[in-house]
Amino acid sequence: xxxRLADLPESxxxxxxxxxxxxxxxxxxxxSEAHLLTALGLHALQHRGQEATGMVSFDGEKFNxxxxxxxxxxxxxxxxxxxxxxxxxxxxxxxxxxxTGLNEVRxxxxxxxxxxxxNFAIAHNGNLINAERLxxxxxxxxxxxxxxxxxxVIIHLVARSHQxxxxxxxxxxxxxxxxxxxLVSVVDDQLIGVRDPNGIRPLILGxxxxxxxxxxxxxxxxxxxxxFIRDIEPAEMVVISKDGIKSHKISxxxxxxxxxxxxxYFARPDxxxxxxxxxQARKDIGGELAKEANIAADLVVPVPDSxxxxxxxxxxxxxxxxxxxxxxxxxxxxxxxxxxEAGRTSGVMMKHNANSEIVAGKDIILVxxxxxxxxxxxxxxTMMREAGAKSVHMRIASPPTTNPCFYGVDxxxxxxxxxxxxxIKEMCAEIGADSLAFISIDGLxxxxxxxxxxxxxxxxxxxxxxGEYPVIETSYNKIA
Length: 480
Ligand code: AMP
Hints:
Blueprint: E1 24-29, H1 34-44, E2 52-58, E3 63-69, H2 72-75, H3 81-84, E4 90-96, E5 111-115, E6 118-128, H4 131-140, H5 151-160, H6 166-174, E7 179-187, E8 190-195, E9 204-208, E10 211-215, H7 219-222, E11 227-231, E12 236-241, E13 244-249, E14 258-259, H8 260-266, E15 272-273, E16 276-277, H9 278-293, E17 299-302, H10 308-318, E18 326-328, H11 341-351, E19 352-354, H12 356-359, E20 363-368, H13 375-386, E21 391-396, H14 418-421, H15 424-431, E22 435-438, H16 441-447, E23 460-461, H17 463-466
Parallel strand pairs: 14-23, 17-20, 20-21, 21-22
Antiparallel strand pairs: 1-4, 1-10, 2-3, 2-4, 5-6, 6-7, 7-8, 8-12, 9-10, 9-11, 12-13, 15-16, 18-19
Helix pairs in contact: 4-5, 5-6, 8-9, 9-10, 9-16, 11-13
Bound molecules: adenosine monophosphate (AMP).
């Protein structure tokens, strides 16, 4: 007898072992060069995931796919056979970053499956908090999983649905999952885009001629010359086909809780999300930080690249000159986006170098977007001292990161988060700075245009700073 999910023991949705991903998705319908435009879109979204990339396309007759470890350019180079073999008028793509070391080819998205009703391809950014429990139940009742990702749970739920049409099947599947998801999917000759009911992860809609585009960020539209239309709404599913675009609600829309960390760090500064420029948001956060925690100094120095807009805002607000006291080598990936501690440590050294002429003999304010494990801050402060800085004051453009994210941004377990273990004074001593200050949570909300954080209904998901998780219940019905 099939076990109802409600019969299974309540598991903690915040399982440390569950696979978490921070990824990019892209999809396009209605352009004969959909495969080329997808490769470009994925390239613009490279910052969201650098370990692997993949694409699925449909050419009217057959589905084509390719998945590879590494960057977009390494896998989809212009004129390559790989790319030519992906020719189609519909395509979806994915950039992946795995955080559990399971960077195996079988986990690379998009996933393509043959269902009773036809082919079904899907790519996911986010993290499902009830995936493990659903998976256990699905396996107990006969499903065979091909990967270790949470995304595959959706595929099995679609396969088991009794709904007639693929859109109904996907809707029913999504009604059983909890957490954060921005999805793109191809079902025969349709491109589908969906966002979770709280709209935690971004998904935007654009247009290029007659073609529609779905992407994690607007920078993926700019690179192909497409026009931004709007954000996909929380709980909205759009179905794009030769008949145009149709919008459905997959469930009741919940209060929007867009991830504030997208503005702080994750998104590209030239993107605009939820009607707000990421660059401007970062500058405003830096300005607010200067209002809250300024100190007399000669220079404001950003930790490149992540701290640059906030440092600029800080400098403009405080009137202290902005200088590039650290130079970044751009041929190294994001420090954090490396699975092992050894890789992360050498990554920081390979990535930054002191601009000694600028910082020697100066009192400097170093601005970065966040402290997670403390690896970057420790190295950078030491680097500034070795370059002859007289004093080093660290200012952080986010509140202390005290809690892991379970919705798709990689933050480590609580016991690896420096701010979860140490007081700010202890952190300051640990990184070797003369002073350390973070923007307050209310200051962060002020920078985002609010008077303060509304504790009853915060405008954003800020769980990494507050520990208040907007989706904790595992709400589902049953496996149909
Ligand atoms: P850490 O060195 O562990 O303290 O991490 C902080 C640095 O990593 C900062 O300079 C951020 O720019 C960057 N960072 C923070 N959070 C993340 C994340 N979730 N993924 C990738 N990089 C991050």
